[in-house]
Design a protein that fits this description.
Elements (H helix, E strand, L loop, with lengths): L2 H9 L3 E4 L2 E4 L11 H13 L6 E8 L9 E10 L3 E10 L2 E11 L23 H8 L5 H8 L4 E5 L14 E8 L10 H11 L21 E5 L1 E6 L9 E11 L2 E10 L2 E14 L6
Antiparallel strand pairs: 1-2, 2-4, 3-6, 3-10, 4-5, 5-6, 7-8, 8-11, 9-13, 10-13, 11-12, 12-13
GO molecular function: fatty acyl-CoA hydrolase activity
Protein name: Acyl-CoA thioesterase 2
Family: Belongs to the C/M/P thioester hydrolase family.
């Protein structure tokens, strides 16, 4: 695997400390605080170590911002082991306090009623530029103090369908979409559905919250904005591969009381494979003048 893909797999591979207790390392991805997708992916991975069934849903709350310079302890509570469904509660602990909690449910696929909404029509991934290419076109807009962090390569490859300049945002419709996959194929010795689900949880947090900012002409780089993920939900509908392009289509339905509600759908080979929901904090603040 390429170095970035290997880094991602290692980030989501936890150390077992004791029965139902695991430790994950942290990585600076979006600043001093731990990237929410890292905690989502690691928490799902911790829960998956206690079962051999794939997940079908995850419901999580972000309670405190995590420290990107410190590891995170994950405690898994085996709530229920049923014939059809297995339930796990996960607590992420850092510096002695719980920073994140999630409920995860696992089950085996079974035959039943089958329906999905129609996949949206967008240009194919080979017809849109990668995020890395687009960043090179924006380099003159990037302030010197954030240039290094903004220009670094992500652990996954992203191709925005409707790219914007985050340093000069304009009011737009509350919709957004991009293609996403790992940079390289997942190696056979770690190629299992539970890892693919953890990686999808990791990248499900990219840009989702920002969708509700678009009607307001704001972006995650706006200096007068305080934003943070408050909660996150993922539903896993069908099997998928994270080393093949996934279309992540997002929209927001409301922004009020300094919060925005966002919805996402992941498509692969014409199949709706995952759905996401996230409410984010969108608080305007005064900019201090020298």
């Amino acid at each position: 695997m390429n170095t970035l893909t290997q880094e991602l797999v290692e980030l989501l591979s936890l150390e077992k400390l004791e029965e139902n207790i695991f430790r994950g390392q942290s990585k600076k991805i979006v600043g001093k605080r731990v990237f929410g997708g890292q905690v989502l992916g690691q928490a799902l991975r911790a829960a998956s170590y206690t079962t051999d069934r794939p997940a079908h849903s995850l419901h999580a709350y972000f309670l405190f911002g995590g420290d990107a310079n410190a590891p995170i302890i994950y405690e898994v509570d085996r709530i229920r082991d049923g014939k059809s469904f297995i339930s796990r509660q996960v607590r992420a602990i850092q510096h002695g306090r719980t920073i994140f909690m999630a409920m995860v449910s696992f089950t085996q696929p079974e035959d039943g009623l089958n329906y999905q909404v129609t996949e949206p029509e967008y240009p194919a991934p080979e017809d849109v530029k990668s995020e890395a290419e687009l960043k090179k076109q924006l380099v003159d807009f990037v302030p010197e103090n954030v240039r290094a962090s903004f220009m670094h390569d992500r652990l996954v490859e992203i191709k925005p369908v409707m790219p914007v300049n985050p340093f000069m945002p304009q009011p737009e419709a509350p919709v957004y979409a991009h293609y996403v996959k790992t940079h390289d194929k997942i190696e056979s010795d770690v190629d299992e559905i539970l890892l693919h689900q953890s990686i999808a949880a990791f990248y499900s947090d990219f840009t989702l919250m920002a969708t509700a900012l678009r009607p307001h002409g704001l972006s995650y780089m706006s200096p007068n904005l305080q934003c943070a993920s408050l909660d996150h939900v993922i539903y896993f509908h069908k099997p998928f591969r994270v080393d093949e392009y996934m279309l992540y289509d997002m929209d927001a339905t409301v922004s009020t009381s300094a919060r925005g509600l966002n919805f996402g759908r992941m498509w692969q080979n014409g199949e709706l494979v995952c759905s996401t929901v996230q409410e984010g904090l969108m608080r305007l603040r005064e900019i201090e003048t020298p």
